[in-house]
Amino acid sequence: MSQDTTISAREINHQDECVGCSAHLSDPCHPLCPFETGEFGPAVILRAANHRVRNHPAGVGYDIAGAIFAAAIDLVGNDQAQALADESRQALADYLVGQWGPQAEAIHNQVVYRHGLFAQLAEIAVSLYGAADQYDGNDPDPSDC
Length: 145
Ligand SMILES: [Zn+2]
Description:
Number of helices: 6
Strand content: under 5%
Bound molecules: zinc ion
């Protein structure tokens, strides 16, 4: 792992868009795209996690936290992955509690796990992209999913 000098290769989602800046596959990345700057935050990790979720089945449902951690490993390397994965999972938990309402606050540390147990892949995609948009301060864009 030489993440100090090498920026991970751009990742493209199921809509042929960069998970960092939403540039189309056929266009170059935005200059401030994480894949250009090497500065990866929770939003890009959450979007990168989306296409890893199907590779992280749990006994029941999916291991979303595992997919987030795998995305962090791939994008920033082992040294920084844990902290960034924690921050990303927290952003998703905040988003889910916002969706589920005040009573979910009591189970804040379980919402990501429970979401993985009960949600379909399409719903997980909505939440990962929604959490990324919320973290970035953008309105959720349903067409992303
Ligand atoms: Zn990009």
